[in-house]
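QA checklist item 7 of 12: single-chain prediction sanity check.
[x] sequence parsed
[x] length recorded as 1009
[x] structure emitted
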Amino acid sequence: MRFKCTSLKYGSIFLLLLLISQSFNIAFAQTERKITGNLLDTENMPIIGASVSVKGTSKVTVTGDNGAFSISAKNGDKLVFTFMGYEPKEITIGTASSYKVTINEATASLTDVVVVGYGKSSRKALTSSISTVKGDDLNKGAISDVGQMLQGKVPGLNITRSGDPNRSAAIILRGASTLREGAQSPLFVIDGVIGADISILAPDDIASIDVLKDAAAAAIYGNRAANGVIMVTTKKGIAGQTQLSYSGYFGIENVSNQYDMMDADQLRAFLAKSNSSLTPANDKGANTNWQNEVQRKDAISYNHNISFSGGTEKTTYNASLNYFKQQGIIKTSDLDRFIGRVGVEQKAINDKLKLGFSLTNSVSNSNLVPYRNTILSQMLTYLPTAPIKNPDGSYFDNLTQSNYYNPVSMLDNAQENLKYKNLLASFTANLKLPFGFSYDVSASYQNYQTVYGAFYNSIYTSRYNNVRNTPDPPANPTIVSLIGQNGVAVRNAYQNTNKIIETYLTWDRKFGNHSINAVIGYSYQSSVNGDGVQASSTNFPINEVGYYNLSLGNPYAVKDFRTDYGGNSYQDVLMISDFARVNYNYKNKYVIQGSIRKDGSSVFGINKQYGYFPSVGGAWNIDQENFMKNQNLIGSLKLRASYGIAGNSLGFNPLSTKLIYGSVGQFYYNGINESALGAIQNENRDLRWEKTATTNIGTDFSLFKGRLSGSFDWYNKKTSDLIFTYEVDPNIYPASTITANVGELTNKGLEFVLNATPIAGKDFFWTTGINLARNVNKIVSLSDSRLALAKVYTVQPDGGGQTGATVQLLEPGLPIGTFYTFNYAGKNAAGVSQYYDAKGNLTTTPSNRTDYYAVGNAQPKALIGWTNNISYRNFDLSVFMRAVLGNKIMNITRADLFRPNTAQFTNIPVEVADESTADFNSYRYSSRFVENGSYLRLDNATLGYTFKKGIPGVKTLRVYATGNNLFIITGYKGIDPEINQGGIAPGVDTNNFYPKTRTFLLGLNVSFN
């Protein structure tokens, strides 16, 4: 018995010890401990800066050198690893305390998230044509307009930029869809804010840009989406990744090309050969290169950007400050701009509610070039034998010649300045609800303020008070009269405000193999534009007053002077919309999408203020089919098709459809001239927005495990209800013209993208991508049963001896930008230029319009962009080339210089030395001056080196050198073939060629731990 008792006692003790040990094990399992490890890619290279978090908690850290991480966790916790460009990875903590984690690089076609209207989508689930450009892939350089950053990056997006830092790029997506000037630009949406001004963003703040190209993608934005939609996503703070960064550069710009004009000796020799000579008033013994005198030898640009971001799982934040300065290549012109931005996102109610607030403010100061195009013209035509100044220091001028002005004097004796502030504030709230629902509310406020001042001193009012001004086409040259004496000044201040409130409910639910995402919402937008005042004055005591002190003028002493109070620019616009969209996805194989938006706007006719804009699309992910499972060649393959209708409401104000009375002249009554009042605008109660219907068929693919990928799209855009102004019978209508919906035009095109990674080694990496687009534009009709218009002659350059001559035509059957002018037939036996008349006979005296021919088109046959990115260890090299093919340019500037028989009055190019002075037609606008505008440009090349280790406190440090516009191959004889291709008068070079520059930059990017 004793033995049995002893055995029982020892057995009880053993059981007690076992229970105690188990409790220690349980306690140990529930106790947090230090978990360490390393995060690597599939090549066994460390991932630095990746986020490591404990799922369901606020604990987060980032990987450091060698991909090392350290975080507190307990058994059973899940660690989540995320890093841009890689697939997320989860591991479960077991008994080990150290882990080696490998993550895979993301396959773009499967994992990319695309921003769409009122939501996001994986690229796999898209049914429409959307192009995405990441922030790091945007164009680099001294860029004042963010639109230029997309140039050549998106197939079908035609962007032409000026060399002027104060001018925005012209942007057209998939061809012009309207005949209204200024109504062709895509709609910009910044972080969900519709119609935000893209100039408010600093390039360093952009995370990505998504371009919604077809109507099925854009129709959710209804009456503003006919020209496409560009969605801009800015950088946000990332939980656990506190980062302080600086980026900056310094650049020098030089003129890339000049006209080869005669110098003084060449001009005298040419005149002597033709038994002519300069007048004493014009030959002062000088040898002035007026282009050099008007342009800077070196224009300086620099940029500084500081950003700070970070946060926790509950709160993230970001802030940045940007300063940009760029001198224009034309003296006196420049731009400097400050941009400040701050954003906060906060989670609450167990992460069910996410609140966001962002505030961006930019302050810009632009020094403009008064009479810009006139000065550009005069720097070519002003005689090199004339000096800038007289011996006494006063500016030289020969006032006996008409339309002949000293360009340096015009620059130095006038000033024009525009200061503008741009503020954008937005608030967002997202609430996750049961059963897959979520509710979003957003409110935004935009305020744009301008203060403009111009001063033309006493030299202007005495010498240049009747100047021939040459605005950009399609506007025609005019004589600008400065009524006043001792200087004229004008000053104005205006502001535009835009308030938007949007709310929408989203249902995102999966039922077995079926997934549904549905959105229904409401939008309210109130805009007030042109709220401000303008005033002018003259007769100032001194020139130094400028435009700051209008009260120092004495305008009442000048008989004919009238104060300019500005135009009727005030607009109050209200827009109310309802919208809905449904996406259905079956097994990630078959996707169907439909959307509709109902828009109401106060700017259109009272009978047509509401419109409906539907869309439908479908996609088949072929790679998800069973017959694709056992092959390794094709990674992804998708077919998609869509159809949608979008509208265009750009360029309208609330008075566009109203009957308006105004001054129509004078009548004589009782010995006095009285003002006559009459209708100056007809009412149109049925005026509605233009509608653009787009059919898009495309395919997306990737091969060889993503090493080769691309897409192909075919589209057909048809715009109906074109808005145009027609002449009407004044016996039936109060006024002689009416703005109505009549006409139709089409754009048909192809787009192709191919991206490849030829080399992906441990030390050497090379990616290349090419995109190509072709668009064919055609005006189908300009008439209906009520209003008829056979053709519209546009662009009247009005050069000397060519009054009434036009160079372009709008006509059914032809594209926008068709050059319609005389057909050059060489020279006759007497050396005089001759042309074909309407019957095909030769003549030296053709008649305007009667003997015109269609001789080319300004729209390109193809747009090509080619990108190469190479990295070798710490070095990186990017090269971007861009080509525009098959377009024509009407070189009006060159035509107006072809005047050998008047060389004693205005300078001529060196090439005109071979022209005969007997040719009285040498300068006539004709096919002779319609030139091939094709070009290939090395747009950007950047070489950089990144220091990854060895600097205490510094996470990464990169230095780089960039060259922009390094060379161009073209047959065009003007300054540069990149002539504006926007508007209804594309491709016309008429002294609007602000010189392009070649830029060299040295830059630095650094981020701190």
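[x] summary fact logged: The longest strand covers residues 514-538.
[ ] second reviewer sign-off
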